[in-house]
Amino acid sequence: MHHRRRRLRLLGVVAALSALLPTVGNPVTAAAKPPAPTRPAAGPGTNHATDDPFTAERTSWWRQDRFGMFIHFGAYSNLEGEYTRPDGTVCRNAEWIKRECAIPNDAYEKQAATFNPADFDAEAIVKAAQDAGQRYIVITAKHHDGYAMWPTRQNTWNLRDHSSFDPHRDILAELKTAADAAGIKLGFYYSIWDWHDPDFADPETFPRYKKRMYGQLEELVDTYDPALLWFDGEWDADNPANTWSRRDGADLQAYLHGLDPKLIVNNRVGKREVVDGDFGTPEQEIPTEPVDGQLWESCMTLNDHWGFARYDTHWKSSATIVRNLLQVAARGGNYLLNVGPDSRGRIPQASVDRLRETGRWLGAHGQGDAVYGAGHTGLVAEPAWGAVSRRGDELYASVLSWPAPGKPLHLTAKAPFTVTAATVLGSSQRVAVTAAGDGFDLTPSGAATDPAASVLRLTIKPPPAAPAGTGTGLTAQSWANGSFTGPPSVTTVDPTVNKSYRFDGSPDPTIPADHFSTRWTGSIQPRFDETYTLTTVSDDTVRLWIDGRPVIDSATPHGPRVDKGTVALTAGHRHRIRIDYTEGTGEAHLKLLWSSPSQPQQIVPQRQLHTR
Fold it and tell me: Is 46 part of any domain?
């Protein structure tokens, strides 16, 4: 790793020296178009799917931590949500104020020159996250206005070179030091869309912008060693035109993996598809059920803006935050809750107060166990009265609507299991558990322990599981055509069905990246006697049979998509499986996942797949 870092530093220096000196506040311009960033060595035979994010050690901390702090902070913060036009009228916005209020470039640069967040206190910010129970932080390193919040070498449109801030300070370095000391992971938001860089909007000059973007990302990875990169601004747009493509996203994702294989990246690195990055990013909403085919994280504001707006006092209550967090965790997601520091770099006290109240709830009576390391359980249906998460052999039933005295809370079971103990966290009251209809009635003997949510911990005896299998994978035959005709070009054993060939890969170096097909055969061995959901993530076509019966038939060519089918499987039994996949042109993906009441969603693992 150290040798790689030294090489990357040299590459960064070479990249910086290859361009002309920038004018104040603007990126490098050059008469000749420099080459685009070099793509990683790839071609036929390359599979960019390096692991399964649902189970990988790389993503383990993120899946366990569940709750993070988002920080929107940049040159826009200096205006604190209001811009006074030359005619005296006032326009209001926050992080989009430059564009939505049509602030001329020279006026925006002039105000940014006065930006002086001298009161930015990294230790105080990290403490606020700790007090809230947030276990990772993501801060905007560069938003859509293109302003870099670190001393980038790629231009002078940054906090060191274009502000009134102490040029000897580096707030990202300060935050990294404080976060590391507290055991909190640090990640960076980076906008692909750039309103300030004159090379961005023109396809002829876009390679110059892209080269600088790669240079900035290399700086962030090499200097601060982030655990996560959170991209944004990938969508088609105008003013200025945004031509970021799926191929651009695939190239960038591969490049970042080359810089640091441990990085976690969100799906906005591409075009927000299920095949992009490691996790999806629903914004200002919570999915009503677990997301198919991809990890996910819901990002939300504490009030109505991401950046600071002095007039916005529409704050979420701590009870709302707690309830959101419980619902997110119970559906298998993460919750990234935003704060917007003011022009001096201070988090508003109203935000700090609500975060502290949330942390008090999480820290009381072990209630945080309903969130940290917990996740979706298919054993029960989500009840109308709350949310249920699972952590090992314990269910955490978070009650948002406490029943009247003597009235039960009904829990619908989706598979047979036994409740061996039930308690209300923070209370000595009894909880009667009785079999009732399609599940259980839970009747607490006392009052709610908290107005936001009270948590029942149910110790369970789950359905029995067959021993883990000893499989080595499925037999894979691949053809250099899309019709499975003639003898296969190559026959291998694939440990899992987890292929992300993107635009340049294929099953084998002898097979071109377009117009090929693969057939997997063998058997799949479940560990539970349950109805399983088999899920494919594919581009272009996929068909799946279990024991000769069609389960998924998605034979019309399509872009990245999720298909699902259900089938009853027998624990320990080897069920015959066949998957036919074809690739036409463009991207190529195929992933096979499974889930059941007792089996969390994941790529079907090697040990449960057999060649026969």
Answer: no
